[in-house]
Design brief:
about 300 residues, mainly alpha, 4 strands, single chain, two-stranded antiparallel sheet, two-stranded antiparallel ribbon
Length: about 300
């Protein structure tokens, strides 16, 4: 236990409380002075606007520029209203100011266009010119990658119509709804269940349209072939007895042997296409307008969807 509160202890506590009260009063007085000063500044700005021959009067612009950039305690909207302008009109009149942040590409001092301006959070700070150039470079690189992907995805993979029919039959035996997958669901977006099933249906329809006989060679684009083979491999393992029943009318070969052979053909075609594509579309390639329009018009390919999943 303590020795007890003495009179001098109480005196020190009272003195501290008085100091706090005085500080509160000083802050309150300072706040009143600050608010009064703000009103006076805005009133003076309004007077200058009346006296100015035009909104672009150098003296008025100088005052607006100083208050906006140096006196952040005065609302930008209130300052603009005092000058008889909208906020955007005032910003256009006073113009930007140096930020002290250099462009990471050319070194020029970046300009602040508003109080809320900040260097890019998504990469190194760039001036407008360098940002435009970088955007053009990024766009070109993206277009080249898309052209390369379409070339590889469109490379023909050859097998017999019978082999493609067998792979498609396995996939089509398991409709997405039977797997409990709804179109556009999280599982569907992740696994591409509906996309894989539609791809198998498309292959089957192509075989029917071509009226191909069993042993006639038939070409399928690499992107479509890859999706079909991957899906068939997965589904063939779900129920081996049912898979055998599905294949019996088509071929005596096991699903694993058939799909392995198709996959080897696919890998060989893709490897050859990857070697050729760098000659046709090197990384420094400049796509022409027609090629860029075709990328927009054609939309995503099967290969694009596959790359999004992997």
């Amino acid at each position: 236990m303590g020795a007890g509160i003495q009179r001098e202890d109480l005196a020190r506590a009272e003195e501290t409380i008085r100091d706090f009260t005085d500080a509160e009063l000083a802050v309150s007085e300072a706040q009143r002075r600050l608010e009064g000063s703000k009103r006076l500044v805005l009133e003076r700005v309004a007077e200058l606007r009346v006296l100015a021959a035009a909104v672009h009067d150098p003296n008025l612009v100088g005052v607006l520029r100083h208050v906006y950039w140096q006196q952040r305690g005065i609302s930008a909207k209130s300052l603009a209203e005092a000058a008889g302008l909208s906020l955007q009109e005032m910003l256009a009149v006073i113009g930007p100011c140096p930020s002290g942040v250099p462009c990471s590409a050319c070194g020029i001092d970046l300009l602040r266009t508003s109080r809320s301006w900040a260097p890019s959070r998504y990469g190194p700070p760039l001036c407008k010119l360098c940002e435009t150039r970088q955007r053009e470079v990024n766009s070109r690189e993206r277009h080249v990658k898309e052209l390369q992907a379409r070339f590889i995805g469109g490379a023909p993979v050859q097998a017999t119509a019978q082999e493609w029919q067998a792979a498609a039959t396995i996939v089509l035996a398991y409709p997405p709804l039977s797997q409990g997958s709804e179109p556009g669901s999280e599982e569907d977006r992740k696994e591409g269940i509906w996309l894989s099933w539609e791809n198998a249906r498309k292959v089957r329809d192509q075989l029917i349209s071509a009226a191909s006989t069993e042993n006639v060679p038939f070409d399928i684009p690499a992107a479509s072939a890859r999706m079909l083979i991957e899906s068939a491999f997965k589904m063939a393992g779900w129920d081996t007895a049912r898979t055998r029943d599905l294949l019996d009318p088509i071929t005596a070969e096991t699903a694993h042997a058939l799909l392995t052979r198709l996959n080897r053909s696919l890998q060989a075609v893709v490897a050859a296409a990857q070697q050729r594509v760098t000659q046709i579309y090197p990384d420094t390639y400049e796509p022409n307008d027609q090629e860029i329009r075709s990328l927009w018009n054609d939309g995503p390919t099967w290969w694009d969807h596959l790359h999004q999943r992997t």
